[in-house]
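Researcher: I'd like a structural prediction for the single chain below. Treat it as a standalone chain; there are no partners to consider.
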Amino acid sequence: MEIIIPVILYIPFVIFVMLAATNAVNLTDGIDGLACSTSMIIIACLSVIAVKYGINDIALLGVILVGACLGFLMFNLHPAKIFMGDTGSLLLGGAIVVMALYLKMPLILILVAIIPVLETVSVILQVLYFKKTGNRIFKMTPLHHHFELSRMERGKNCFNI
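Model: Treating it as a single chain, here is the predicted structure.
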């Protein structure tokens, strides 16, 4: 099903999707390899969709990015030797947006990119709730830091299973 919207509405929608996705991946970056590994799964999913619809340019871009992420993860095992930082996480978020927009499926990011979406929603909820009540919902946001602190309170660090 294809939805046709006027250009005057499409341009702000695209800007919103680009800002939301790039910042969501940037918020996901924070624990060794989290942004890269989740982005790799999202890009692989978009690549499979591109292959299904015969859009080989996007499929090739996705395969290249998955390979780059795998190379990065080889050097980013605990303890991390290199860090992605904002430059890498914003690039991955931008690549995800470009792939989704080229496939004409930007709304699929809500499902496929559920981890970055949850990370972003946790930050938004924490800020709004704190401004309203002065209390916190989570120990720390983004959400992966809340889970990390919860694990450390029980006497284990986040790398002991």
